[in-house]
Structure formats: structure tokens, C-alpha cells
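Re: that chain you flagged

S.,

Sorry for the slow reply, it's been a week of failed gels. I finally had a moment to sit down with the sequence you sent. For the record, here it is as I used it:
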Amino acid sequence: MNAPAAAFADAAQPIRLVEAEIGKVLVGQRDLVRRLLIGLLCDSHLLLEGVPGLAKTTVVKTLAQAMAAKFSRIQFTPDLLPADIVGTRIYAGGEFTTRLGPIFAQIVLADEINRAPAKVQSALLEAMQERQVTIGDETFPLPKPFLVLATQNPLEQEGTYPLPEAQTDRFLMKVKVDYPIESEERLILDRALNRDGAIVNRVLTIEQLQLAQRMLDNVHMDDRIKDYCVKLVRATRDPKGVGITSLVGMIDVPASPRATISLAIAARAQAFLDGRGFVTPQDVKAIAADVLRHRLHPSYEAEAESLSSDALVERLLEHVQVP
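Prediction finished late last night. Pasting the C-alpha cells below so you have them in one place:
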């Protein structure tokens, strides 16, 4: 179904209002906010990486406030158990009852996910994938929308349990949260010294979000753009085939077909948030690093040349022909 151009702008307007409400609380970090909205539109989960103190928790809580969504924060620790997340059966009053865990929320912040052991990570990631939880002999569907935003600290590795490649691939994007610039940090200080906090208004309803998600399906993606997504991902497996000889032997683990799908749907959301009903190559390039950085694993040769996954993606974007 071809929708008029104005319909995309109208459907995206409430989503952009969320961006404005977050701006009342968060200074800068526009790319982070845009990625959060893309995850919300695509009904997919995000992995946020950054040192403590960069307002990752604040932005997630503000997102929940702007859409009056049920919010839950889970602090991951080494002694956490799967039942602490999904819930458990308890015996009281002569019978067993089910106590649902904090994962039963619309927006879940999994704080420092790499501090919990593998069985806890698996319980969370299984729920993310299946959108349901089984406790005892009962299965409980998770609420809609259901968005998991997991954070991890890239600096401290002692006592952590890094997510395996098969697990990180389930996240639509891995977003790097960086330090603010000087002018932004001064504004952060001014706001912190002001006791009167900003009032975040509810500007997005669940119905408006669902309408936007349906409209997202109508965003046109030309066959040439689809081919571009495929070529970018396939170049991670066979760089020589697309003429990038400098990357031969530099990628130990290439991207899977899930990366191709993620690249396409995230590009559609990027176009939609700009009020357009069609995808351009620039939309793909804008989100390529976030979609691919956790799906590419540099080889020892690449690490010896100080080539990070971001640097590898940059080379791919430079050499794969743009339609």
C-alpha cells in the first residue's frame, strides 16, 4: 500500500515529540536518542556501551515517561539468578502462586548486563527473542511494546561475563555513548545545580506508536537499496569479492543474514523519523556502524594494525559502491 508523503510525516510527529521531551532532561546525545527511537519503532532491542555517568539510565527512564510506559530497571550482579528476572513460583497459604519478575515491563533497562553469569544472560535474551516467559507449567506473554535496553561498561572487565557473539547478534544495534562536548557539559552542570527538574509530558500513546510501526512497513525501499544492504554485509565475508583487498584476513567473524535484515529495517526507521516514505543510501550509511559493530569481530591481524570494528565498517562504506 502506497501512503501519501504527508501521512509519514504525520505518523512520525508523535515520535519526534518524544525526542523533544527527552531533550528537556538530556543534554546532547542526539544520536543516542535517535537510536532509541529506531529501536522503539522496529520493536527491537539495543545494547548501549559507555562509561558510567553518561546518563544512559536517565535517557531510558525519560523515554518511558514520555510515553507513559511501564519501566523496570534490573541491576545485573554476579549473584543474580534467572528467577530474579523472569519470576518464580512461591508457596504461600497452602498453594503455589506465580510471582512475575521485573522483566514484565514495556521498557526494561538491563544495567551492566555483562556483570551477570551466562545463565542469567540467557534467560533475559531468550525472553527478548520469544516475547514470552515460562514459569513452572505456565507461559506468560510479555507486554507490548517490549523494549530491552542493555548497558555495559567497556572499561571494567574484571568480574564480568562478556556476551557471546550468538547473544549480541540478537540486539538490533550496539550504540556507543560518548562524552559530551564542553558546552554541553557546562549546560549539564547548570541543570544539575538547579533543584527544579524538568517536567516530562506524555506525548506518545501506545496507539500512536502502533500506528507508526504499521506506517513503517509502508516505507519504500528500492531494490537497489536492498542490494546495497546485501552487498555491505556480504563484503564482511568476502571482502576480496568487492575489491576491498585491504580487509582480507582482517575479519575473524563476519556478519550473519540477521545483520542484513537489521540494516534494512533500521534504515527504514531512519527515513521514517525524517518524515520520508522512502529510503536513501544515506539512511543505510547513517546506521551501518551501529548495526554492524557488534557483529564484526576483528582478527588478530586487524588488532595488530589497531583496526577496530568501527574502522572495518568505515572501510566497507568507503569501498562498497553506493547505488
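What I noticed first: The chain has 13 helices and eleven strands.

Talk soon,
D.
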